[in-house]
Amino acid sequence: MPRDNPRNPGFPIPSGSELRAKGWRQEALLRLMENVLAVGEDPDNLVVYAALGKAARDKAAHDAIVRALTVMDEDQTLVIQSGKPVGLMKTSAEAPKVIMANCNIVGQWANAETFYDLERKGLVCWGGLTAGAWQYIGSQGVIQGTYEIFMRIAERRFGGTLEGRFVLTAGLGGMGGAQPLAGRMAGAAILCVEIDPERARKRREIGYLDEIAPDLDGALARIEQARAKGQALSVGLVGNAAEIYPRIAARGIVPDIVTDQTSAHDLVYGYVPVGYDLERVRRLRSQNPSELIPAGRASIAQHVRAMLHFQRAGAEVFDNGNLIRTQAQAGGVADAFDIPVFTEAYLRPLFCRAIGPFRWMALSGDPADIARIDDLVLEMFPDNRIVTNWIRLARENVPFEGLPARIAWLGHGERSALARRVNELVAAGELKGPVAFSRDHLDSAGMAHPNIMTENMRDGSDAIADWPLLDAMLLCASRADLVAIHSGGGGYAGYMTSAGVTIIADGTAAADVRLEQAIDNDTGLGVIRYADAGYPEAQDEVARKGINHLKL
Ligand code: NAD
Fold first, then answer.
1. Nearest-atom index, ligand 1, CA of 269
2. Is the minimum distance from the CB of 209 to ligand 1 under 6 angstroms?
3. For residue 249, which of 172, 164, 310, 327 has the smallest C-alpha distance?
4. pTM of the full predicted structure?
5. Domains of the chain with bracketed CATH
6. Among 76, 198, 340, 439, which is least packed by CB within 10 angstroms?
């Protein structure tokens, strides 16, 4: 029986043991699509997160996907082109159940204008990373990544803790909404600026924000009180970040850490320019979208100049994967790239070892299944400090949204060992139902994005998209249940290529093979990608884990 979903009424959270499809693998993928809408930002318009990241092309395509997943046999594969099902093909029980390619636009035309045009004509939809591939689990999906970034900075600059430190950021949407909780978990006093009062209210309601300040004075006073006492606190402030950041700078205040997670990548459907209220922006989106592009760029220029000011005054400033520097540079800020990107600055040594945002979802809908797997992680990896620390923190602090789920940054060999052990628990009836394993596309083998994931690669291979494409083909060959290739969308048009994967632990022997091959080959290729680029950590991982990297 699906559970009611007060957050998005009309989009119930799937649960229970009754199947609508002909097998658990198809049922699982159907539940995951339902889940991304249940936790999505604007499910009536199929939008899951990141301004325009959609679960399906349109309502008709969505309904057709539901029908196809319900009727398909285990020896068929559903083919999805930019959120629209186009074929149900005879393959084999070993083959993926769903393959999809979302918003891959031929190089010469891969720009925002062509994307918006094709999207309006109903010919493509953007899948974001995890929206179109039905792997989104709400803000939890990026909480650990954000937390790990804060902790890396804490270790490097602040003696291992953010207690007594002021973090300034913006954007409380699907992904950015994770920031207040991650900041509080790291011990900081964190101020989050958000233009849309409804988004701020949502994060307050689920407890990610401790409070919403009435104005800038009130917000800074609360931050200062918390900072002085070393108290962890998350404060929201409704306003435009491009105005608020310079106002904070003008008062001579320098936060310890500054970043931003507004949807700066999309100047039409995402970023709100200074001087525009939400109503006007919404109207312009349909009536005169081209007005928003120069206005957005000008505001982002102002926004990033304030970030550069904070950086020069000693703050730790970083781009959190929203293309804000790219937009600012196009808007005339020549030194925007003095701000580093989070992957290169903090996380690359982890990606070299394929340690990245692995996740699992309890398809039964029962939180007890996740609690059991939490215990299992602690038992299996007692010496992995990142993961044991995270699981303990997440248990206490991270509420479930939609299907109960957990994220943990596990690496090569660890991910498959956990998934196979979970598959045994499913087989033994120790869990209430099967479990889906997946990861963010922003992972070692899964993404080429020269302004986010692969910026300043050691060998200069930033722009090469072969790796995620090879990854997707390898995942199909390794029998994963869902494989996706994504690109495009608004500001991301032409900027990235990524691969996504989901594998269902349904307790069968065949699932055991799928989990081992797909997960190990995915992480193995990720380590090879970085070893090939000359990273010593990856070369060490190749040697330590016996990964079959063919060196010339
Ligand atoms: P979203 O569209 O759900 O939320 C963006 C939020 O920014 C909205 O709430 C919007 O009201 C707010 N906003 C827009 N303009 C603003 C302004 N000028 N001032 C203050 N608030 C403003 O997007 P999301 O899913 O939260 O993603 C945010 C960005 O982060 C996107 O660019 C996304 O692609 C990127 N992202 C990064 C990572 C990562 O791993 N670092 C992961 C996912 C997404």
1. 2
2. no
3. 310
4. 0.94
5. 24-120 (no CATH), 140-340 (3.40.50.10730), 347-545 (3.40.1770.10)
6. 198
